[in-house]
User: What shape does this take?
Amino acid sequence: MELRKSLSRAARTGLILLCALGSALAQPFQLAEPVLQISSPFFTDSAVVRLRLDLEGVEIRYTLDGNEPTRRAPLYTGPIAVRETSLLVAKAFHPDFLASAPVTRLLVKIEPALLPAGGELATSPSPKYPGQGSRSLFDLKKGGADYSDGNWLGFEGKNLEYTFSLPRKQPAGRLTVSTISATGAWIFPPRRIEVWAKNKRGGAFKKVAEENYPPLSGPMAEHDRLLVVTFPETHHALEWKVVVENYGSLPDWHPGKGAPAWLFVDEIFLSP
Amino acid sequence: MPGWFEILRRRNRANDPVVGHGDFRYRVRLDWAAQNDAAKFPVNDCHEMVTDRRGRIFLSTNDTRNNILIFNKDGKILDGWGTEFPGAHGLSLHDEGGEEFLYLTDYERHEVVKTTLAGRVVQRFTYPADSGKYASADEFKPTETTILPNGELLVADGYGLDYIIHYDRTGKVKNIFGGKAELNNAHGIALDMRDPAGPALLVTSRADNALKRYSTDGRLLQSIELPGAYICRPVVHGENVFFAVLISRLPWDSQSGFVMILDRANRVVSCPGGSTPRYDAQGAPETFHQTVKIFRHPHDVLADGDQNLYVSQWNSGKVYPARLERV
Assistant: This one.
């Protein structure tokens, strides 16, 4: 009797497992990632985030702390206003499909007092990707997947050299260069970033910090990168100079080896 | 008695997802042609499809071991031919007084060839040298053709200079229009006979996510915005226009495609694999996007007499076309 019971229990468990396996096999399709719309990922007051995946029964869940959303994460019900620097991660769920891959976006609050009053480029971008000149580097606008959308400055084989001034002295401890890397499109990360500051009007620029980036040993898929240079100490300067050194020649492993690499930058900003 | 695996497989088949909206919903059969031997009939990018009088489906691929593959409705490959078309792309079929011919564009050979259904080349259409628009044949990278009822040919130079070139039956250029000022990646063209007032041409401006209507003599009549939809070629079937949407966001290899269906008024009524079509009060559509990763890069749609669709894909792991069965 006991044996028969446990046998039938085993059969039932087996059946349940089989059904679970069956339904797992039956839905091999995955949801696409939610479509993310952001007023601008660089903001001084707030950024407005909209998420969409227009399929009946979809739930979009998100976090602002960089953790991958679970089914218990906050549900997206309408535009989100983000007021602090945040790492947004969103994911779609549906009873009939596998959950989407997460989409992640860094939203960066920039101190209004650290926004340049004006800036000047000492090197000029390629006429193909002129952006809005130096203005593009502090307009809080992010370049998109279309490199010629007017927000990217593209330098072919050349360095980016940029000077800017703040409206008044303000403590700064870091500088961020917003770039994109897409080796398939010949766009490479920089070799080096140097930050210089002039502490006295009429004085000379002094190097504040530099960061070096290693050569790439293979292809890098397209992605936005924020390269942060942290200063050894806080500086209160009005005048600043940034040199972003181009990768140089395309390396031997690249189909275009020897040709000049492209450097793409859409924003440069100081943080406290 | 079938084995457990067979039962699971059948259950799996019964659960193939249903996609689409409104009256245009389909059960997806990705394995429609999986029965074939890929070593015997290899494919690379599966570009376009047409069907002949006998219901056979012709597929163009840029695998030069067989640029054209011929399927029956059950997905079985009956035959293949063509070894000399590295850029085999656009495929149209035209009935010329009882005999059917194919028009195949080749963006690498910089020409369009007219062939019999068995692959014998009967005519070549080369770049419009006398138009003054082209410096050399290399600038001509045709992606699509459509044939007027009188047998004259229109060619879309979608990977070249985005002109539409109108050839007479002898291959002489009669007209050239469009170009980069009006079109951005003029990837597809089709003759639209739905309006009783007269024929029009539908041309996709793929990189601009727009469908443009032209008169047959090349006047731009209308631009229909389809934001987010990188539409490949218009396929007019009955009252509807069908599109393979290659991607719904950049980059070009983002695997974000789906299928799109327009009604008689050229409004989107269904997006199998994509977002629910929505229009605002002003009649502007919301941005279209992929919702489920069923397709990667759909490149063409063929509709058969039973309202089923066949979907061929570019850069999608060398897969054969899928079938969408209308439910």
About this structure: The two ends of chain B are 30 Å apart (CA to CA).
